[in-house]
Write a structure and sequence with these properties.
It is a single chain. This protein is mainly alpha-helical. Strands 1-2 form a two-stranded antiparallel sheet. Helix content is 70%, strand content 1%.
Length: 460
C-alpha cells in the first residue's frame, strides 16, 4: 500500500515504545501484520523496511493502521488502538471514545478498553463532556436493528475460562454492596482500575464462544456499574459513554434482557436527570421491544416503571397510570425466589417499584400518593441501602411539603441529611439540593431556618 507522512514527519515514538514493549523485531512485526491482513482478506507484503518507514513517521493508508494495532495487541495480550500506535493521522480520536455502538465485536473490545484506559488517565474530555440526548437514543436504535454477533471466540493472549468469569461476577457483587453502603465516591476508582488492569486483559485473551458470551455478559454488568457510579460522582457525560459500551457488550453476550435493562434502568434514568422526558419513554419502550420474549416479569416491571417516569415528567397522567398499572401487574407475576431472575434484576422488588412510583406522583403533583409510595419504599428498603433510603426520605419530605406539612418535611429531610453525611454521593446531594429549593417559599418559618442552619453546620 502507498504511504503518507505524518504531520511534520515526526518520528513515531508511540509505535517505537510499543514495539519495544512487545519484544518484536521490525521483521517480526511485519510478518504479524501480513498475517492479520490475510485473515481480513488483504494481500499485504510489508517487510522490515516498511516498519522502519512507519517509525520515521510515514503512515500506511486504508485499513492498515488498524491491522498494525491488532497485530501488536495480539503480541502484547491486550487491546491496542490506532491512537496508541500514533497512527490517528492528526485526528483526536479520544474525544469520541465510548460514544459509538460498534458494528463488530473487535471494535467493541477496542472501544471499551480505550474508554477504561482514558478514564484511568483522567482525560479531561471524559469528565467534562456534556450529554446529548440523541447520543442516548441512537445506540438504542442500533441495538434494536443490529443482528446478533455470530461468534465472539478469540485466539490471542492468555486463556480465559469460566473461573475468570466467576471472579468478575464476584468482584461486581462486592463492589455493588460497597456502593450501596458508602456511595460511589469511595468505590468508583477501584472499579475503573480493575476494568483497565484486569478485565481488559481478559477481553483481549483467548476464549471459546460459550465462555466469551458469559465473559461479555459479566463485563457488561460491571461496565454499567461504572457508568452508574459516574452519575453518582457528578459525571453524566462519562456515564453516557459507559452505558453505550455496556449496551454493546450485552449485545456480544447475546443477552437481550440485559440490553433492555441498560436502556431502561441506566440510560433512561440519565435522561431523567438531564430533564429529557421524551427520551425516557423512548428508551423504556425500546427496552420492552428489544427484550420481548427474553425478559422475566420482574424485568418487564422495571421497563414499564421507567416508561411511567417519562410520562409523568411529560405531565401525561393517563399514560403514566397505564404504564404504572402494567408494571404492578408484571411484578405480581414475578415468582419470588424462583431462581428465574438474573442477579442484575433480582433487587427490583416492591420497594424499588414504589420508589419509582413516588417519583411519578411527585412530578404529577399528586402529593398524597407520592407520600404513600415513598413510605412503602422506605418500609421495604433494608438499612444497607443507605443511598436509596436517603433518596426515599427526600421524596417523602417533598411530598409532605407539597401538603404544606412544613415541620414534618424538615424533620424527614433532616433524617435524609444524616444518612447522606456518611455517603459520597452526588445523586444524594442533588436530591437534597432539590428539597432545599422547594423549601425556599417557606424560608421565613423558624423550622426551615433551623433546618438550613443544621445543614450549614454539617457541611462545615
Amino acid at each position: 500500500m502507498a504511504a503518507r507522512p505524518l504531520v511534520a514527519r515526526q518520528p513515531n515514538e508511540r509505535l517505537q515504545v510499543l514495539i519495544q514493549e512487545a519484544g518484536c523485531s521490525n521483521a517480526g512485526l511485519a510478518r504479524r501484520v501480513n498475517m492479520v491482513g490475510s485473515e481480513r482478506g488483504l494481500d499485504l507484503r510489508y517487510d522490515k523496511t516498511s516498519v522502519a518507514r512507519w517509525l520515521r513517521g510515514q503512515q500506511p493508508r486504508g485499513r492498515a493502521p488498524g491491522i498494525i494495532a491488532e497485530a501488536l495487541g495480539r503480541k502484547l495480550g491486550r487491546t491496542v488502538t490506532i491512537d496508541e500506535i500514533g497512527m490517528a493521522n492528526g485526528k483526536n480520536l479520544a474525544s469520541g471514545v465510548g460514544l459509538q455502538f460498534s458494528p463488530t465485536v473487535l471494535g467493541a473490545i477496542e472501544q471499551v478498553c480505550e474508554l477504561w484506559r482514558s478514564d484511568v488517565g483522567r482525560r479531561d474530555f471524559l469528565s467534562g463532556s456534556a450529554v446529548a440526548a440523541s447520543a442516548l437514543v441512537e445506540p438504542s436504535r442500533d441495538w434494536l436493528i443490529t443482528a446478533p454477533d455470530a461468534a465472539v471466540a478469540r485466539n490471542a493472549g492468555a486463556r480465559v475460562g469460566l473461573s475468570d468469569v466467576r471472579a468478575v461476577r464476584a468482584m461486581t457483587g462486592a463492589l455493588v454492596e460497597l456502593d450501596h453502603r458508602f456511595g460511589s465516591g469511595h468505590v468508583r476508582p477501584v472499579v475503573v482500575h480493575y476494568l483497565n488492569s484486569v478485565v481488559s486483559g481478559m477481553l483481549s485473551g483467548s476464549y471459546r464462544d460459550a465462555v466469551g458470551r458469559q465473559l461479555f455478559g459479566a463485563v457488561a454488568r460491571l461496565t454499567e456499574l461504572a457508568g452508574y457510579m459516574a452519575v453518582d460522582t457528578g459525571q453524566p457525560g462519562l456515564a453516557q459513554r459507559y452505558y453505550i459500551q455496556a449496551l454493546r457488550l450485552a449485545q456480544a453476550a447475546g443477552d437481550r434482557a440485559y440490553g433492555g435493562y441498560v436502556l431502561a434502568a441506566s440510560m433512561s434514568h440519565l435522561a431523567a436527570q438531564l430533564g429529557n422526558p421524551r427520551e425516557i419513554a423512548q428508551l423504556a419502550r425500546a427496552a420492552q421491544e428489544g427484550a420481548r420474549g427474553h425478559a422475566t416479569p420482574r424485568a418487564e416491571a422495571m421497563f414499564l416503571a421507567a416508561e411511567a417516569r417519562g410520562h409523568a415528567l411529560l405531565g401525561d397522567a393517563r399514560a403514566c397510570d397505564e404504564a404504572a398499572g402494567r408494571a404492578l401487574g408484571a411484578l405480581e407475576r414475578a415468582e419470588p425466589d424462583s431462581g428465574d431472575d438474573p442477579l442484575w434484576i433480582a433487587h427490583f422488588d416492591h420497594a424499588y417499584l414504589s420508589d419509582e412510583l413516588a417519583h411519578c406522583h411527585r412530578d404529577l403533583g399528586q402529593a398524597q400518593a407520592a407520600a404513600r409510595a415513598a413510605g412503602d419504599a422506605l418500609d421495604g428498603h433494608p438499612e444497607g441501602r443507605a443511598r436509596r433510603r436517603a433518596i426515599g426520605l427526600l421524596l417523602l419530605a417533598s411530598a409532605q411539603l407539597q401538603q404544606r406539612e412544613v415541620e414534618q418535611a424538615c424533620h424527614t429531610g433532616g433524617r435524609a441529611a444524616e444518612l447522606l453525611a456518611g455517603l459520597r454521593s452526588s445523586r444524594g446531594v442533588e436530591y437534597l439540593d432539590d428539597f432545599r429549593a422547594r423549601l425556599e417559599p417557606y424560608g421565613d418559618e423558624p423550622t426551615v431556618r433551623d433546618f438550613a442552619a443544621r445543614l450549614t453546620v454539617g457541611a462545615g
